[in-house]
Amino acid sequence: MPREKPKPKEPPDIGQYLFPMAGVMILTLATLIMDAQSLFTNTSIKVDIPKANVIEVELEQSIPVSVTKEGKMYVQDYEMPDLQSITAKIKELQEKYAMENNDPELKGQQLTVIRGDKAIQWGKVLEVLDAVKKGGAKRVALAVVKRKGSG
Description:
Elements (H helix, E strand, L loop, with lengths): L14 H26 L10 E2 L10 E5 L5 E3 L2 E3 L2 H18 L11 E5 L5 H13 L5 E3 L2 E2 L5
Parallel strand pairs: 1-7, 2-5, 5-6
Antiparallel strand pairs: 2-3, 3-4
Helix pairs in contact: 2-3
């Protein structure tokens, strides 16, 4: 009896491996889209930020300093009773940033973003800015919302 030749193996159907991976990627993308704002906002303090025509966006780890319409001041999510507390906390966070990166040259180089509610007086924001600078922050930005139709 002659022996039958074995049939050549067919390559596996790539679709059976691709569809589950595509589902995982779509789920991951949907999660990132829904959480995008909270991923890039480093604080839970609600502030109605004023609008501006010009805006530069740089996504990096920053220190948020918030001033609410009631005049309460926060560094990250910690309420600060006075301007001296802001200065001390900024100094502490800037030193921690330099130590975490094992580079004393980075002290004061972490971006500090001041988020002032548009209902507060401009003088209060300037006082907070001064306290942040006294804390050793060399890179300070004011948070604004881009106006519609600009840029």
